[in-house]
Amino acid sequence: MTDTTTPPVSAPASKADRVIIFDTTLRDGEQCPGASMTFEEKLEVAALLDEMGVDVIEAGFPIASIGDFESVAEIARRTKNATIAGLSRAALNDIDRCAEAVKHARRGRIHTFLSTSPVHMKYKLQKEPEQVLEMIVASVTRARNHVDDVEWSSEDGTRTEIDFLCRCVEAAIKAGATTINIPDTVGYTTPSEYERLFRTVIERVPNSDKAVFSVHCHDDLGMAVANSLAGLAGGARQIECTINGIGERAGNAALEEIVMAINTRADVLPYATGIDATMLTRASKLVSAVTSFPVQYNKAIVGRNAFAHESGIHQDGMLKHTQTYEIMTPESVGVSKTSLVMGKHSGRAAFRDKLKTMGYELGENALNDAFARFKDLADRKKVVYDEDIEALVDQGIAAAHDRIKLISLSVIAGTRGPQRATMKMSVDGEVKTEEAEGNGPVDATFNAIKALVPHNVKLDLYQVHAVTEGTDAQAEVSVRLEENGKAVTARAADPDTLVASAQAYITALNKLQMKRQTLNAQSAAG
């Protein structure tokens, strides 16, 4: 009988089985509706991705906007280790703009793409196959004239006819592409199909040994991670993924799931990555904070319940031996077991050390701000949990550059209406005060904000949940606002639900303002 107490350990993967991790959180991830990030937030995410060992950071789509160009260029200047990629369509001016953005990187890459499936060629491109082949050669050649590292993607590759796909791949490599990406753009394929696709292309394309093959899978049918790993079995050695699996529609393959599947199942996945897995939880929390996209509780690897055990049978097993119900340790992904160790008597040094163990490295000003808010919270709560600290630090990160800031709020509520809110706010440095009534305390609070900052947006989502247990738990509020088809989501936490509600709404307004500025800048640029 096989002993299954300890997960099997295999020999280290060979150098040939090293998998390149290509993170597209800042590009494909940001295209998720409502998940836009500020310039400073992108720099912070990029710095963490670089520190944790991501091989290639796709920093943005430079031609899309002035803001995207500037963020890609600045990330290229600052990044110490990773290759910095910019995305480009097959248009020559797109490629030139992309080259300009990545030129300061220690290692820059141009990632250009073109649709190859019959449905895309007919309805999207309105081009014949031979015209598409010519565009592939022209775009890759142009990119290769700028940089040595060129990636070409066959958009909607899994719905492309295999003969034509092989012709496209061969032409792209001959023109100078060093990486070939065959994406499952619409999340349509299955693991066995995807593995077979890569095997077939690599076997049939005569110059396939001149390029690294890459997978890029969307999660429309919930198979993005499985398909990505199947692509490795078919011969691919680069995986394109995002933190928390964020991305368009149902999202992308989740980086943390890819990495831990390889780390945990080396017996059947004989590959290696350069990712420091102990930073996965921190990366998840940072991306969640800057995008205001909460991580579902039962999310694999980084969800709140990923290492929680409530069933009596499971708890009994865990007490006897952790491997009865855990195939990896919490520490392996950066989850701390500690809790309830901080309180109102804790000092600055202890707070700084606590943040470090939780994966936060704050500058002096940010640390001072976080410590002041921690002390205020500790005075209001009996106990301060790790989750409380995470919430207040992440909220500070998200609000560091806000133009609209809440100063104070008082609300009169109860069975005798109407409810009334009095609010003091700083708007571009000017302090304003307003009182408003509403159909309930939340409505009154939001009406006060509208009076102070006149606007006409739609409230698409208002959601409240407790960060921790107990009647003094912090309330975490999520708000999604929509304006002219553009949606933003924001979160805030506070022991007072109404204060958290106001903070979340104000943060969403700040994000909308930044979107307007970006659009105005694009219009001004012509």
TrEMBL record:
Q: Which Pfam families match?
A: HCS_D2, HMGL-like, LeuA_dimer
Pathway terms, separated by semicolons: Amino-acid biosynthesis; L-leucine biosynthesis; L-leucine from 3-methyl-2-oxobutanoate: step 1/4
Gene3D superfamilies assigned to the protein according to its UniProt record, in alphabetical order: 1.10.238.260, 3.30.160.270, Aldolase class I (3.20.20.70)
Role noted for this protein: Catalyzes the condensation of the acetyl group of acetyl-CoA with 3-methyl-2-oxobutanoate (2-ketoisovalerate) to form 3-carboxy-3-hydroxy-4-methylpentanoate (2-isopropylmalate).
- From the UniProt record, list the reaction(s) this protein catalyses: 3-methyl-2-oxobutanoate + acetyl-CoA + H2O = (2S)-2-isopropylmalate + CoA + H(+)
Could you say which protein family the record assigns here? Belongs to the alpha-IPM synthase/homocitrate synthase family. LeuA type 1 subfamily.
Entry EC number(s) = 2.3.3.13
Q: Which NCBIfam families match?
A: leuA_bact, PRK00915.1-3, PRK00915.1-4
The protein's gene is named: leuA
Q: How does it assemble?
A: Homodimer.
Q: What class of enzyme is it?
A: transferase
- The organism sits in which domain of life? Bacteria
Protein name, UniProt field: 2-isopropylmalate synthase
Cofactor(s) recorded in Swiss-Prot or TrEMBL: Mn(2+)
Going by the UniProt record, its keywords in alphabetical order are:
Acyltransferase, Amino-acid biosynthesis, Branched-chain amino acid biosynthesis, Cytoplasm, Leucine biosynthesis, Manganese, Metal-binding, Transferase
Q: Which InterPro entries match?
A: 2-IPM_HCS-like, 2-isopropylmalate_synth_dimer, AIPM/Hcit_synth_CS, Aldolase_TIM, LeuA/HCS_post-cat, LeuA_allosteric_dom_sf, LeuA_bact_synth, PYR_CT
Region feature (Regulatory domain)? 405-526
Name one cellular component (GO) term.
Answer: cytosol
